[in-house]
Amino acid sequence: MTSFDAIVIGAGHNGLAAATRLAKGGRKVLVLEAANEPGGATRGREFAPGFRSAGLAHLVNRLDAEVARDIGLDLSGGETLLPTTVLDGSGKAVVLKGAYGESIDGFSAEEAAAFAAMRTKLAFQAGVLKRFLRRPPPQIGAIALGDFATFAAAGLGLIRKGRSEGRDFLRMLLMNVADVADEYLTDDRLKGLVAFDATLGVHLGPRSPTSLLGLYYRLTGDVAGKTGGQYVPSGGMASVAPAFVRAAEKAGVTIRCGTPVGRILADRGRTSGVVTRDGTEITAPIIVSAIHPQTTFLSLVDPAESGTGFVRSVKNVRSYGNVAKLDLALDSVPNFEGLPAAARNGRIVLVRSMQQVESAFNPAKYGEFSSDPVMEITLPSLADPSLAPAGGCTLSALVQYAPYRLKAGWEAGKPAFLKIVLETLERHAPGIGKSVVAASLMTPVDIEAEYNLPGGHWHHGELQADQLLINRPTSAASGYKTPIEGLYLASAGAHPGGGISGLPGWNAARHILSGAKA
User: Fold this and answer.
1) How far apart are CA 318 and CA 368, in angstroms?
2) How far apart are CA 100 and CA 399, in angstroms?
């Protein structure tokens, strides 16, 4: 029996952020990780001899600057923002430079001005929402002074912009992204890009109500103070997990990998520690779960301790992934038609129009994958040559839509979907098929198995209006605290959600250190 002040379950980046903040606050902290190495979904893997993937994420666009400073994260590279290139198959690329299209190439001056106006509007509105990300969400019936201050600051920001801006914010907040794109833009490629960005990773199409929230969420992230910026760290995405590990170890955190937790000890509504699967009991008055909330309460906690109603609400959290992750091992760097050489190290989005995104979503509603998918691509080995042998290259793509609950089953559907994806790539990069050494397509079912993510959803639950803020993951556990005293949530399934931000873990740790009761 070994005792600690706090035990963190899960060594993903949120778990490590929570552990580091707690340790810097004077707590003796242990992190337990089921996998043989830390990193969670940022953990890399060899998918073919000599070729490695750096994990699910292939860009950084949400890492919170205050979190990074506070925990001492030594992750460089944000000084250089990467471009986004839209390819529609015509051979004429559209390139967005700077932070989410501060400048754009490939459009008329009128369309560029329209996009700039839309970007300014959405960035301001996302900034209003951003004020709520670095603190626990307000608790109904227990509004704290800090909550009033946040509300006041948000309201003041709207007032300063004028009455019309306030009306626009309320009008647009729950709109679908298609209507907003139609309101500002005429170019199909730009409409397709904003539709793709608003719906990537969620079970919505661009014409689904509230789909604009996805784009707001993206724009609450910034790089070096620039809204919507994106970058790949020096050394590539494989450097993300080690940076969080170094920060944790420097703060004095103990990390044990290959040590899955079998049970969270709780008695009469109070936790006292954990039991690992090999039967070892480790005590601590604080347990921080940085894994999926459903795994926490449906697998590790006795349902009698948290209550029938609470367990039911956790079961009902929608957490079915809709995106597949493709890794290709190539014997040479692919040549995408129309892609400027200077943009090869950035993000490439294959999309023709908003209607294509909507049409790709339609089959997913009925448990089928799209025959005309849209996707986001990077070439990771350009930033990190160690991912591929000399002369080779890796390609990483997020492909939607690919529903977790495929009607035909993924055992049968996976080869057919891979064929469609490779054919799509061939149309944009002729000859790429001949350079493929190996292909690894991870469906949401595979993502679930590889990263212990129920439903294969990287956000640990849908980012939709009814599963955000005071309802993330459920109303009874929305402020990191749970019905079990001493047990806290700190994964992407907690406020504010997924992406490499560190905010759920950091917020949870600060909440614990503050001694807050709610």
Assistant:
1) 18
2) 20
